[in-house]
Amino acid sequence: MSNFTLPIDSDTLVLDHRAARETAAPFAARYQAARPYPHICIDNFLPPQVLTRVRDDLATLPEPESAFDNARERLKSSYLPERLPDYTRALFYAMNARGFITFLEELTGIKGLIPDPYFMGAGIHRVANGGHLDIHADFNVHTVMKVERRLNVLIYLNSDWHADWGGSFEIWDKAMTQKLESFVPLFNRMVCFSTGSDTFHGNPETVANPNGDPRLSIAMYYYTATWDDSRVSHSTLFKPRPGSQDQRDSAEARRKIIRDILPPLIYRRIAGKLRRIGF
Which of the residue ranges 106-110, 215-219, 239-243, 266-270 would you say has the lowest mean pLDDT? Predict the structure, then answer.
């Protein structure tokens, strides 16, 4: 676990790209060597006054753009940046700008990172008491821009969170046999990790804050122009933990059967339609 503060101006949210590169450089080797896939956890990531202002902004939230309440995603809501107050919205735009992209490229070794102006799946994530997000690997292609998803950045907004309140972010091995890392969602803690079809992660332990406060986080996703038509796209791939009561993703299992039967060209043409109809 690493500890530093990104040199972003807390008023203007400007981050000089040269300073960003210098800040990231000492942590690059640790990130890129992490197992089972590249990742890092950094505490005190932003100037604390930045996230204090964000928390003040989030005291009143609009209706969420998306909300999930099923066996795999319980009581989880997502809020797009453009409908949030000015300061929080500006922070999201700053995280899509050159300075922050430079920081991520230096840290991860992934060049040509592309931010997402649509914030597809990104924004403020809220998990209410009683909620959880099962272990999964993320969707692998941006369906609008047709670019490959490569990187997730999560920043937690929860004051004085305790491990026994649930909601910790977990990293599992690629065979889904054991949990290798667990990070409590503490205020101003950032977790960054590379994404692929076997980078399994989530917060499967039920949120149980005795104060009734939800688990809050900033979620941002980044891409590269490395997608081509020979690849097979997929939506979120949920995986049950061994010995748990986690529910299998029956829709994905059905799609896998079809994928194994049909020629790849035909499957690629119908995969999006299958997901839209829940098959």
Answer: 266-270
Burial grade of 166 (CB within 10 A; 0-12, 13-18, 19 or more) = buried
What values do phi and psi take at 133, rounded to 5? -135, 115
For the stretch 32-74, pLDDT in tens is 999 999 999 999 999 999 999 999 999 999 999 999 899 999 9
Q: Is 87 helix (H, G, I), strand (E, B) or coil?
A: helix
The β-bridge partners of 230 are none
Longest dimension (CA), the chain: 56
Which one-letter amino acid corresponds to residue 243?
G
Query: Which ranges in the chain are annotated with CATH 2.60.120.620?
Result: 2-237
2-237 maps to CATH 2.60.120.620: yes
DSSP string, 156-225: E--TT--GGGS--EEEE-TTSS-EEEEE---TT-EEEEE--TT--EEE-SPP--TT-PPEEEEEEEEEES
Of 36-50, 120-134, 223-237, which range is least confident? Answer: 223-237
- What is the rounded average pLDDT of the residues 242-265? 69
Distance between CA 188 and CA 185 in Å, rounded?
9
